[in-house]
Amino acid sequence: MDSAFPAPPRFPYWRWNLRILWIAQLVAMVGMSAFLPFLPLYVRQLGHFSAAQAQWWSGLVIAAPFVTAIIATPVWGAIADRFGRKFVVVRAAFGLGLTVFLMGLARDVETLFVLRLLQGVLSGFIAATTGFVAAETPPQRIGYALSLLQSATAVGSVIGPLLGGLVSDAVGMRWTFVLVGLLCTVSGITVWRFVREHRNPVLQNTGGFVLVDSFRLLWKSSLALGIVAGIVVSQAAMMMPAPIFPLYLERLGAPREILSTVTGISVSIAGAVMALTSPLWGRYAERFGTGRVLFACTTGATVLYAVQAIAPHYTVVVAFRALLGALVAGILPAFYTVLSTRAPAHLRSSIMGLGSSATLLGNLIGPLMGSALATSLGMPWVFLASAVLMGLLSLMNPRIHPVVRLLPRLPSGRG
Fold it and tell me: What percent of the chain stands above pLDDT 70?
């Protein structure tokens, strides 16, 4: 440990908690990613829809939890700051498990849509773990910790689609939802049993207006507002292809009888690359600055999304999606790192909750835009739109945009 950055006494368990939460998030992400890539196919299974109707309902179903979670996530973050962060993480895991299990029992797309809305209220597992880690980790190591946590998401997104595709093709999509419910329950039990939360009396007695204080702080900071806007744009770009991705692979020649498996392989390859590169981006940010990470990742993503729009065969899309995984792995942790390091300790979970709400807003806008573009202009335009949004972010470089110019370099000390 670098003596210039000793670990403050209020972070005694951060390494242990990070390991446990990495495992719990991995298990939860295996569950979530086991069904998410196949929701468009599940929607088509629940009704007799035209191609345009299937694309539109897929966008609504994918976006639904983000509508309610945008409101619920900051509230849960304030509850975490006020009453305890471990409770909120456990609650999120069980809430996700319950709602996904019920999705497997849905008989029509309207019921699926309502359950997805409920999922947004009751779950928010990734937002909860992100807030916990940001609050319980020494400031000089937050970038590394959040990037490592992102790698758990990536590893889960490797295993999940493969598992979900195999289960779906073998015994049906409904059993995939049952499996996810069990995995999320295991994740919640793991956190409840092994995570050790540091309860600081000062932070527990900050009053009942934590969420109001967080909004006030965000509103007064042009840097924080710029970061939040960047989160929304980046997530919208990443999520736009989600409603049409398996349908796009089918259009480019993927065999329909193994379409779920091909989709799962494609998503898993990208996740594998993310898992390998996410901690590397975190260490690069600690050494050279968060702004450089954002510029490199968004510029490369611009090119790769554009290439997917003109791909002649589905294997080309699969290959470039793998490269894309290496670049998007660095974007969100970089934004989150800046938010966390600028937030007061007693508001950290609340501020991260607002950052998570920005992520969810992008996740909401993206699928709706993707469905609308695919219906009106065609599926390749969805990837071109993602390229345009990433291109706008890449223009936020240190010479011409104040947000990136002000992004602080993170100290490289070890805690």
Answer: 84
